[in-house]
């Protein structure tokens, strides 16, 4: 017999879903219109300034004119107009536009379509963050694509920018490409930054594990989209003995388990043996038939890149050895590290 109260509540919930869907569509449409408006105003300002028809004083006059005619509008002061000019100029630059058009299958003759279909997918606030906190076209492309692909909130994007996710992802990709093709690009970082843990300089592996579990939401935010927590000290029974892993996750897009093993010392080659043992046990006893082989990440307090390269060169399982830091890292140091790593692999290829 059906429950009329339960059915009524289900109907009510359906109405709420319809309201939320409509609200999201309205917000998306309004955001798209605003982004296109700012792009088109930026185009006018840029072309007038470039042609020498407008100077700084004229832009100030335009800001005053808008304020007089539309006193309730926000964001159209001198600073806002120059941001719109910058927005237009950045995304009219072929160095930035061409790779995106290729990736999203647009041609140069469809630039307006590119702008309306791509740039309008993220908020103006996110655009301002990317413009303000990136320097190179590669960085801008990276964060723009991440914002669209992962639907990053302003908070999530700001954390990625502040913690140099671009540089760390490039380091991880550089290493995985040069050493092993088993790891997917763009998923894992090196190093990971755990400034939210407030750990003392001297800490144990148990301290690190418990702090990460306690701050699991921030940890997953640092790891990236797609990770689902499966547990800590996950029990694996092999023979007559029990073994316990550190932190186990499942990645929905990769469709595989990802095991994070924690080390508070510099990487040693023997660490890989234990990691591979755990990965083999997971694949034999826990992995389901439709899932992909498990991936292991060794988080160490430092590593010698050449030692890691040697250790991974004949490694069978997909694995990454990554540093972890308990405070934000200077982007210049990361750029230098990326350069040094490139030199190591270049020498080895000769």
TrEMBL record:
One family from Pfam that matches here is: DUF1016_N
- Residue ranges annotated for the YhcG N-terminal domain, each copy included: 17-168
Keywords, ordered alphabetically = Endonuclease, Hydrolase, Nuclease
Q: Which InterPro entries match?
A: PD-DEXK-like_domain (IPR053148), tRNA_endonuc-like_dom_sf (IPR011856), YhcG_C (IPR009362), YhcG_N (IPR041527)
Top-level taxon: Bacteria
Provide the YhcG PDDEXK nuclease domain boundaries: 187-338
Any single GO molecular-function term of the entry would be:
endonuclease activity
Does the keyword Nuclease feature in the UniProt annotation? yes
List the protein's name.
Answer: Putative nuclease of restriction endonuclease-like (RecB) superfamily
Q: Which organism is it from?
A: Pedobacter psychrotolerans
């Amino acid at each position: 017999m059906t429950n009329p109260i339960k059915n009524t509540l289900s109907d009510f919930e359906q109405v709420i879903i319809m309201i939320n869907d409509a609200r999201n569509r309205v917000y998306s449409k309004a955001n798209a219109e605003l982004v296109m408006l700012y792009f088109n105003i930026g185009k006018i300002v840029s072309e007038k300034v470039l042609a020498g028809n407008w100077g700084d004083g004229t832009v100030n006059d335009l800001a005053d004119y808008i304020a007089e005619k539309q006193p309730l509008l926000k964001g159209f002061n001198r600073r806002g107009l120059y941001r719109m000019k910058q927005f237009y100029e950045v995304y009219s630059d072929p160095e930035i536009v061409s790779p995106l058009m290729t990736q999203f299958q647009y041609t140069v003759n469809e630039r307006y379509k590119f702008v309306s279909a791509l740039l309008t997918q993220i908020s103006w606030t996110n655009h301002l963050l990317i413009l303000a906190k990136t320097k190179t076209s590669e960085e801008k492309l990276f964060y723009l694509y991440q914002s669209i692909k992962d639907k990053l909130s302003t908070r999530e994007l700001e954390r990625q920018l502040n913690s140099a996710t671009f540089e760390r992802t490039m380091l991880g990709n550089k290493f995985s490409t040069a050493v092993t093709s088993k790891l997917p690009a763009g998923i894992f970082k090196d190093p990971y930054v755990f400034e939210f843990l407030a750990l003392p300089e001297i800490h144990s592996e148990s301290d690190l594990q418990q702090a990460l579990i306690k701050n699991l939401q921030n940890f997953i935010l640092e790891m990236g989209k797609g990770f689902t927590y499966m547990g800590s000290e996950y029990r694996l029974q092999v023979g007559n003995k029990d073994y316990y892993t550190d932190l186990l996750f499942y990645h929905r897009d990769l469709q595989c388990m990802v095991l994070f093993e924690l080390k508070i010392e510099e990487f040693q080659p023997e660490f890989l043996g234990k990691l591979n043992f755990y990965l083999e046990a997971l694949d034999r006893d826990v992995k389901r038939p439709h899932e992909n082989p498990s991936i292991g990440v060794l988080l160490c307090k430092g590593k010698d890149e050449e030692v890691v390269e040697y250790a991974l060169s004949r490694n069978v399982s997909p694995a990454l050895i990554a540093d972890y830091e308990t405070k934000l890292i200077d982007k210049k140091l990361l750029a230098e590290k990326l350069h040094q790593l490139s030199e190591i692999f270049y020498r080895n290829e000769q």
